[in-house]
Design brief:
mainly alpha; 8 helices; 189 residues; globular
Length: 189
């Protein structure tokens, strides 16, 4: 499989083959599913995809914390906090202080939140069925297994890569010392 092509400008750096680069394929698929799902869920149910993901997780793990939601879904705390506040304002979840640790808050679906979950899940499962329609049952089983293995391997992706030096983004280069500062050091040195 061709992992990339050489730069035609002659610099010799490879270029991604977006039809074969797995992180891009996963990202493109996830972005498109998220965009269309969020639009559909907002129009039909008044919540976006982030709120739906939180509702679905709370149906599986009632009374969890925002940190647990972040850990499972992979979101930063800011979007989760905003979404939980949105859901609480609409009486779809309750947020209560943890009796064992006052710094933590437990989030639980209300009856209205569970009812909304039960309406949305039918649409979510139909979207999944349509997405996977071209695959045989065996291909689906293999796909789910492979995705779970990749998920379990994410720690390896986050580990430092020793032979790759960090790159300074454009505009953030370290500026040379001011000429006056250099001459002062030389004079005082």
């Amino acid at each position: 499989m061709d992992r990339g092509r050489e730069d035609e400008a002659g610099a010799g750096a490879p270029r991604l083959d977006l039809a074969a680069y797995v992180p891009a394929l996963l990202t493109f698929l996830a972005n498109k599913l998220t965009r269309t799902g969020s639009a559909l869920y907002r129009a039909r149910f008044g919540v976006g995809i982030t709120e739906w993901r939180i509702l679905s997780l709370l149906a599986l793990e009632p009374g969890i914390t925002a940190n647990r939601i972040c850990q499972v879904i992979g979101f930063d705390k800011g979007p989760v906090s905003r979404s939980v506040a949105f859901l609480a304002d609409r009486d779809l979840v309750t947020v209560e202080t943890d009796a064992a640790d006052a710094r933590r808050h437990r989030i639980t679906l209300t009856a209205a939140g569970l009812a909304l979950h039960d309406r949305i899940i039918r649409v979510a499962l139909e979207r999944e069925r349509r997405l996977l329609a071209p695959l045989s049952p065996e291909e689906r089983r293999v796909l789910v297994g492979l995705l779970n293995r990749l998920h379990d391997n994410l720690g390896a992706v986050s580990a430092p890569i020793p032979d790759v030096p960090p790159v300074t983004p454009p505009g953030r280069e370290r500026l040379p010392a001011h000429p006056r500062a250099s001459s002062t050091k030389a004079r005082d040195g």
